[in-house]
Amino acid sequence: MRTYERAIVVGASSGLGRAIAARLAASGCRVAAVARRLERLESLASEAPPGRILALRHDVRRLDDVPEAFDAACRALEGLDLVVYSAGFMPPVGPTEFDTPKDRQIVEVNFLGAVAWLNLAADRFLQTRRGAIVGIGSVAGDRGRKGQPVYNASKAALHAYLEALRNRLHGKGVTVATFKPGPMRTEMTAHLRLSRAMDPDSAARIVLSKAHVSGEHYLCLSHRLVFAVLRNTPSWIFRRLPV
Ligand SMILES: NC(=O)c1ccc[n+]([C@@H]2O[C@H](COP(=O)([O-])OP(=O)(O)OC[C@H]3O[C@@H](n4cnc5c(N)ncnc54)[C@H](OP(=O)(O)O)[C@@H]3O)[C@@H](O)[C@H]2O)c1
Questions:
Q1: Is 161 a residue of the active site?
Q2: Contacts with 197 (C-beta within 8 Å, 6 or more apart), sequence order
Q3: Residues with Cβ within 6 A of ligand 1?
Q4: Which of 30, 101, 121, 222 is exposed most, by the fewest CB atoms within 10 A?
Q5: What's the pTM value of the predicted model, to 2 decimals?
Q6: Which pLDDT band holds residue 16 (cuts at 50, 70, 90)?
Q7: What's the domain range around 159?
Q8: E runs forming strands in 105-154
Q9: Where are the strands (E) in the chain, listed by range?
């Protein structure tokens, strides 16, 4: 794994973001750990080597607060090398449910919050001409399935935004990596019965091993192969699947 000195991890209070922040801190990096649940961030800080984790309470849906939170993190870290946006929201959605307020929250957390944080990182890294941007997407963003229409759409939007960012920043010393995890055992999926799911620490290890590699990354070879097929599967087949 490449080592980083100063990183921001948004969505660091649980699951994949927490595991990424913990691994970064263990490697010697100072991490601004961002999420709403301050007590979770403080417990993460208490488990890491002293002084490595700075807990920063922030709700990514409050887009107007992002510039101040970003600046506070950069000031406290005295610089920035890596930004990871891992915040995500996937509430249970019924098969005949069309709930716009719920859908709005999904888009705000998964997409608009990412744009607000990563735009600032892109702008800063463009000036310093170095830095790594990581967005956590999902295999769910590869197609429009019945079960989670807006979660899927929010991740597809995030993938397209990150691709555009990657193209804009190409050749300017800034890398942009999109990760598309499959199922992971985290709070997000605690209500689901998952037969094969990755543990967040293994996923974090893979993410950090390629965090500086521009491009789209699946977390395992089987997903890369299966989704190469699924991306080209006609939609009428999805109509016959339960979710
Ligand atoms: N679990 C899976 O199977 C799976 C599969 C593919 C992709 N992913 C993606 O992986 C990423 C991490 O998910 P996870 O599984 O680790 O989920 P998780 O354990 O539920 O963690 C979600 C994180 O997002 C933060 N978050 C949610 N809403 C927020 C808000 N309004 N403001 C600030 N932070 C907020 C949470 O912090 P607070 O609640 O403390 O604010 C938490 O730290 C997400 O982007 C998810 O979409 C997950």
A1: no
A2: 182, 183, 184, 185, 189
A3: 11-17, 35-37, 40, 59-61, 86-90, 109, 136, 138, 181, 183-184, 186-189, 200
A4: 101
A5: 0.98
A6: very high
A7: 6-239
A8: 131-136
A9: 6-10, 30-35, 53-57, 82-85, 131-136, 174-180, 215-218
**Residue 214 within a domain:** yes
* Euclidean distance between CA atoms 128 and 131, whole angstroms: 8
Q: What are phi and psi of 214, to 5 degrees?
A: -60, 135
pLDDT(1) > 90? no
Query: pLDDT, tens digit, for every residue of 133-186?
Result: 999 999 999 999 999 999 999 999 999 999 999 999 999 999 999 999 999 999
Residue with tokens 């979660």: 151
Instruction: Please tell me the total count of domains within the chain.
Output: 1
Strand 131-136 to strand 53-57: parallel, antiparallel, or no bridges (unpaired)? unpaired
Report which protein residue has its CA nearest ligand 1's atom 11. 86
DSSP one-letter code for 178:
E
Nearest ligand 1 atom, CA 85: 45
Residue 145 covered by a domain: yes
Q: Ligand 1 centroid vs 91 CA: distance in angstroms?
A: 11
Q: What percent of the chain has pLDDT over 90?
A: 95
Q: What is the CATH number of the domain that holds 61?
A: 3.40.50.720
Q: Distances in Å between the alpha carbon of 28 and those of 31, 44, 213? A: 9, 15, 20
User: pLDDT-derived band of residue 33, with 50, 70 and 90 as boundaries?
Assistant: very high
Contact in structure between 61 and 113 (CB atoms under 8 Å)? yes
> Is 1 a member of any domain?
no
